[in-house]
């Protein structure tokens, strides 16, 4: 599997989990989009720093070729999937009364 396939799968799985497994509908909430808007600039800055200095390199055959702030689009898909999944699980387990003591 190439990086693009994995990123697209992670994105799709996180959206499906939000809608059908966790049943949070985070994607319809302003709180989710506000949180993502806060996180996104830091993700772009970090991705730019790592890729523009060749600390992290990608094979051109493994990515779609679209780059934003020097990083492949796939990195944004992974970041989105991560944020959605973590917020979804947080909400899901919080509704069930799971708390850390």
From TrEMBL:
GO CC terms of this entry: membrane
Entries under Pfam families matching the protein: Lycopene_cyc
Membrane topology: Multi-pass membrane protein
Entry's localization field: Membrane
Pathway involvement of the protein, from the record: Carotenoid biosynthesis
Principal localisation: membrane
GO BP, one annotated term: carotenoid biosynthetic process
Segments passing through the bilayer: 6-23, 30-50, 76-93
Keywords carried by this UniProt record: Carotenoid biosynthesis, Isomerase, Membrane, Transmembrane, Transmembrane helix
Molecular function terms from GO: intramolecular lyase activity; lycopene beta cyclase activity
Record domain Lycopene cyclase: where: 7-93
InterPro entries, sorted: Lycopene_cyclase_dom
Protein name: Unannotated protein
Source species of the chain: freshwater metagenome
Phylogenetic placement of the source organism: unclassified sequences, metagenomes, ecological metagenomes
């Amino acid at each position: 599997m190439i990086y693009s396939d994995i990123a697209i799968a992670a994105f799709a799985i996180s959206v499906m989990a939000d809608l059908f497994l966790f049943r949070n509908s985070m994607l319809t909430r302003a709180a989710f989009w506000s949180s993502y808007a806060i996180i996104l600039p830091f993700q772009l800055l970090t991705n730019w720093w790592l890729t523009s200095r060749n600390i992290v390199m990608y094979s051109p055959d493994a990515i779609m070729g679209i780059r934003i702030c020097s990083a492949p689009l796939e990195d944004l898909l992974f970041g989105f999937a991560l944020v959605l999944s973590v917020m979804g699980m947080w909400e899901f387990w919080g509704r069930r009364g799971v708390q850390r003591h």
